[in-house]
Design goal:
With 61 residues, this protein is mainly α. The chain has three helices and no strands.
């Protein structure tokens, strides 16, 4: 479940850079923040929350 979410976020960032007002530097900073956040103590609770939301969405469809 981690890879599809990461892929969806990457595609979203790509289209925001391409069609929106997001610049490549903004996307790089967001990616760096994500990698930094993954090493913090809050990462397991965020991972659990994302898994819960993804589970709810998969039951709807």
């Amino acid at each position: 479940m981690h890879f599809p979410l990461m892929l969806a976020l990457a595609v979203g960032a790509f289209f925001l850079c391409r069609k929106g007002s997001t610049k490549i530097s903004h996307a790089v900073i967001c990616a760096a923040f994500g990698f930094y956040f993954a090493d913090t103590a809050a990462a397991p609770s965020l991972h659990s929350a994302v898994n819960s939301v993804m589970g709810m969405l998969s039951q709807l469809g």
